[in-house]
Amino acid sequence: MCGIVAAIAETNIVPTLIEGLNKLEYRGYDSAGIAIVNQDGVERYRALGRVSELEKKTQDLKATAGIAHTRWATHGVPSKRNAHPHVSGGVAVVHNGIIENYESLREELIAQGYVFESETDTETIAHLIELILKTESSLFEAVRQTTQKLVGAYAIAVIEESHPELIVVAREGSPLLLGVSESGIYAASDASALLQVTQQLIYLENGDIAQLKNNQFCITDQAGTPVAREIVVSQLSADAVDLGNYQHYMQKEIFEQPDALANTIEIVASSDQIHTQLFGAQAPQIFKEIDRILILACGTSNYAGQVAKYWLESIAKVPTSVEVASEYRYRTTVPNPRQLVVAISQSGETADTLAALRFAKSLGQEKTFAICNVPESAIVRECELRFITRAGPEIGVASTKAFTTQLAALFMLTLAVAKQRGVLFPAEEGQYLHELRHLPAAVIEVLKLENSIKVWAEKFSSKQDAIFLGRGRHYPIALEGALKLKEISYIHAEAYPAGELKHGPLALIDSEMPVVAIAPNDELLEKLKSNLQEVKARGGELFVFADQGSHITQSDEIHILYLPEHYGELSPILHTVALQLFAYHCALMKGNDVDKPRNLAKSVTVE
Ligand code: F6R
Fold it and tell me: Can you give the CATH number for the domain in which 202 is found?
């Protein structure tokens, strides 16, 4: 997704802008640009492709105020022409989000004589500000009046040639925060861009407009009335996002999972009891009152929710439904005020999940719970209860450690709800917590399978299509394995509950259609073995992720990899790690940009 960095300071801000863009690279983008303002006016530099290309062009540039952007194409193809900043006269603008009424604004502006250089919605903002500045001397006022004409979501940063000492920013819908330090004032769409200069952050709220000037800032609402916003000290550290000795962030993040899981479950590290208060002071009361759980999430986070449904219904005995957030937000549902609404999101800024959460609340469902990896995010701020996973920043676009830590959090939530509802016996509680604490060590053992998985990836990477099969709580893991494979290796992959095979997908099986099966030694194993025979009988090649005790007969068509132990309820987490390595090595074999897969963005802050 698009990223914004803006800086105004006493010293040269160009290196800060470039470093900020580097930190935002993980969000996914196709072009980058910078505009600076000084006594000579506005200068703009743009490059298609990587931030490093922009860096080459701006090596000798110096300025004390500027704005910068990474663009992920929405309106108009990825090109230098469509890259931000967009200019109109002496105005330069960077923008995240989507202006929904841009076509009518564009027509009005063309009628007024403006000529559009790009296909973007952003260019309308630049022209609107320029138009207002013809009769209005204050840049702040021009931006404020412009925002009143915009329908949609935006975060913007603006500079203008007759105000070289000033940056104006505004937000509605898309995230934007300020960074405050002794030597400058900064703005960005994501905290990671600002941690290089400060940890003191101010999260702007919808409708906020801020003026950054002379090491000071002033924030108002859309009516121009000053508003106070709290300064928070970020818990994130700048070096947490360095690549270290790894080749890719995704690889680093896969191998960080033992630590990420250990950090996330630290809270139950030395206890045989789960304390419900760890989810918030109100949690014991709320968990007692609820009669259903509704999980809202997108993509990989949604699959975490789908695994949790198995746990919540079998262990905590609470009816649970899992909805794709983008569907729920526009669906007519039957609201239930006694339902706990759980929003799961790595970033906490996913537009659809946030909107679905707000929609659920607007229906009178006030009991809300966030599972998130970013403590300061919008979803966390808008939920009554929360659990922050401690995965650390996730930079690779394909989610790995965020997913497995979400699963650990959801398992702890299951135990807490079960306990509060009186359906968890102390012996079971102790046993589940014991298994949870063993998880980091168990993941280390799975990571040791990397070389064998690499050999499989060599065979697999030339395939065009694949089918993934799983049953029970491993069906969502089959979905996740297929998603991981398609998003980074671009191999087309679909996942099915294994029992569904003969209801249609079996027609696809031949020697060109490999099948990846998740075959833990659980109560559904024998059923799954029959499904594997159905594939074998049709000439399909099978790649089976089994575990101790699965006892599946190896043959030329059935390749088997045994995970070191059978892991009961938490087995989905271990199988996920193996499937992550599999997707990673398939993508490497194909020479793909693993951390920045084509067309994808890390944090999907537009609809
Ligand atoms: C896939 C992936 C996405 C995200 C989805 C939701 O690897 O990362 O499917 O899971 O975009 O993002 P969050 O969790 O930030 O809400």
Answer: 3.60.20.10
